[in-house]
Amino acid sequence: MLTFLKVLWKNVLDGPATEPFPFGETHTPKRLRGKAHIDASKCTGCGTCKSVCAGGAIRLQAREDGTGINFYLWHNSCSFCGYCEMFCPTGAITLSTDWSTAHLNSEKYDYKETEFIPYQHCVECDAPMPRLPESLISDLYGEPNEEIRTLYTLCPECRRKKAAMQMGV
Ligand code: SF4
Ligand code: SF4
């Protein structure tokens, strides 16, 4: 009985051992896999994240007006596997440490991230084409020269024609 009272008294003096959430700050591990986030400025619309998504949480849909791609990510379908982040070639999709995903059942279809990935246009023929983010060009070439920069303003067809002309074909 005396031991019990000692423990009880010690615990009273120490105060609560549990996290004060939701009334105060709580500990979040740095490596926690929380809500996925998409940075539209880095996204090429390649669809790799959609292909590897374990939860079927990602959808890419080309706009009918041909201006680009709508990108959707449903948070309540995400299993936090992290594959999208692992396979994204440009680092456009990342998992945050935001674990607060509680929402009303009536909001489940709207609990999503929506981004627009615009196409760029070929400077020669104006054809729409997926854009190459600056971050990916830097990863590939470091500081790219003017020739490489010009190449990436052309669609594949115009690039082929330019290469053929340079070779004198
Ligand atoms: S987020 Fe990454 S993997 Fe997904 S479409 Fe954009 S560039 Fe491709
Ligand atoms: S973390 Fe996994 S389930 Fe969630 S969006 Fe990325 S690939 Fe899909």
From TrEMBL:
Using the record, list the residue span of the signal peptide; answer none if the entry has no such feature: none
Output the Gene Ontology terms for molecular function: 4 iron, 4 sulfur cluster binding; lyase activity; metal ion binding; oxidoreductase activity, acting on NAD(P)H
Q: Does the keyword Signal apply?
A: no
Which Pfam families does this entry report, sorted A to Z?
Answer: Fer4_9
Q: Which residues form the 4Fe-4S ferredoxin-type domain?
A: 34-63, 69-98
Assigned GO CC terms = membrane
Decide whether keyword Iron-sulfur is in the record: yes
List UniProt keywords, sorted A-Z: 4Fe-4S, Iron, Iron-sulfur, Lyase, Metal-binding, Repeat, Ubiquinone
Q: Which domain of life is it from?
A: Bacteria
Q: Which InterPro entries match?
A: 4Fe4S_Fe-S-bd (IPR017896), 4Fe4S_Fe_S_CS (IPR017900), NADH_quinone_OxRdtase_chainI (IPR010226)
| Protein name listed in UniProt | Formate hydrogenlyase subunit 6/NADH:ubiquinone oxidoreductase subunit (Chain I)
